């Protein structure tokens, strides 16, 4: 596809949050095409929403946890087998408060805390290769200030 040919193309813009508590990672189990897969709290950017607000919202909606973002891990581009292209902006965060009575997003079975070793051992269940790559970068110390991600008014 080409803009010159008059066709429009854009990737799916998503956010993901690596939340760590006592050495464990907050992970969601979600149903995708009938399979139970693992992912960070993650989702699509909504119109007129900042990337930071999207990360906070998706984490709350998928896990019931309010978090404080502590850094920006990075931006990741991936093409799925379906041909869809994803551009993921990943953040790190610390948990602030949990509302166990909050209903979770449709498709989310539960939120669970896993050690990095447990998540690594379950790679066959990861929703995409983005899951481990983001965690791996976080564990290696990749952090950028949140000021690297800006929304202009």
Automatic annotation (TrEMBL):
GO terms for molecular function: hydrolase activity. Pfam families: NUDIX (PF00293). The keyword Iron does not apply. Its EC number is 3.6.1.-. The lineage of its organism: Bacteria, Pseudomonadati, Pseudomonadota, Gammaproteobacteria, Lysobacterales. The gene is nudJ. Residues 10-136 form the Nudix hydrolase domain. Keywords: Hydrolase, Magnesium. It comes from the Bacteria. Its cofactor is Mg(2+). Gene3D superfamilies: Nucleoside Triphosphate Pyrophosphohydrolase (3.90.79.10). It comes from Noviluteimonas lactosilytica. Belongs to the Nudix hydrolase family. NudJ subfamily. Signal peptide: none annotated. Monomer. This is Phosphatase NudJ. InterPro entries: NUDIX_hydrolase-like_dom_sf (IPR015797), NUDIX_hydrolase_CS (IPR020084), NUDIX_hydrolase_dom (IPR000086), NudJ (IPR033713). It is an enzyme of class 3 (hydrolase).
């Amino acid at each position: 596809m080409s803009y010159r040919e008059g066709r429009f193309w854009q990737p799916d813009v998503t956010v993901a949050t690596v939340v760590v508590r006592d050495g464990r990672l907050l992970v969601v189990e979600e149903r995708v095409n009938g399979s139970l897969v693992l992912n960070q709290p993650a989702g699509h950017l909504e119109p007129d929403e900042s990337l930071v607000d999207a990360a906070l919202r998706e984490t709350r909606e998928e896990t019931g946890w309010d978090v404080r973002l502590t850094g920006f891990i990075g931006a990741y581009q991936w093409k799925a087998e379906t041909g869809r292209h994803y551009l993921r902006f990943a953040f790190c965060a610390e948990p602030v408060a949990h509302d166990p009575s909050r209903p979770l997003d449709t498709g989310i079975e539960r939120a669970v805390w896993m050690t990095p070793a447990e998540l690594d051992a379950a790679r066959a269940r990861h929703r995409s290769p983005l899951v481990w790559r983001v965690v791996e970068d976080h564990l290696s110390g990749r952090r950028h200030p949140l000021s690297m991600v800006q929304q202009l008014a």
